[in-house]
Amino acid sequence: MRVLVVEDERTLAGYIAEGLRGQAMSVDIAYDGDTAIEKLGTACYDVVVLDRDLPGTHGDEVCRRFVSGGGRTRVLMLTAMAAVRERVAGLRLGADDYLGKPFDFEELVARVDALGRRSRPATPPVLSLAGIVLDSAHRRVSRSGRYLSLTHKEFGVLAALIAAAGALVSAEELLRSVWDEHADPFTNAVRMTMFRLRAKLGKPDVIETVPGAGYRIVDPAC
After folding, report:
1. DNA-binding region(s): which residue ranges (predicted)?
2. pTM check: above 0.85
């Protein structure tokens, strides 16, 4: 899942971003409304966590412009103004959900997860393919009953491959969905993550590399 955090309080923005990255999400940050509009115009996000009171273009206007353009991205409005009338105003602007500050981080993650599921075709919380069981709700992975300890990037890559159900997933798609805007398209990050992931999954190898095209999960039993 790819998330844009729009928050002018840099410490809070970093805290939210790092916490979401810890949930195997790809996260970009904008510190003002103008930058948010620019990023929303150049990248595809599943969820935008949008502070309402922003410098530059106000959060209300960011939401209004973005929603009027259509698209599948969901908006979670985040603000210190938690009165009922403020929540209603935010939702009427087109926000999908509203969370007041201060907030519980676990609730923020749960709301982002829920909005992310609404932004794309429904994916079961537990995925299974080629003897691998991936539980996205509890961040657990096992193969043939053996639990695996994966990094956030390894988990995200494996989730993308299993969700593709045997279809090819390009390195560029993985960079967009698992890393963030700072990922170098010429980096070997995907290749190295695949190398480590293969080692942890063990034999027989279930990740197939198709040169120049991408990666996919193959079931050795088929």
Report:
1. 124-219
2. no
What is the tens place of the pLDDT at every residue in 160-191? 898 888 888 888 888 877 877 666 666 788 88
3-state secondary structure of 76: strand
Distance CA 134, CA 128 (A): 6
Distances (CA, A) of 26 to 40, 61, 192: 15, 25, 18
**CATH 1.20.1090.10 given to domain 2-118:** no
CATH 1.20.1440.60: does it fit domain 126-217? Answer: no
Chain centroid offset of residue 202 CA: 27
- The answer to whether 204 and 215 are in contact (CB under 8 A) is no
* Alpha helix ranges (H) inside 30-138: 33-42, 59-68, 84-92, 105-118
C-beta of residue 117 within 8 angstroms of C-beta of residue 125: no
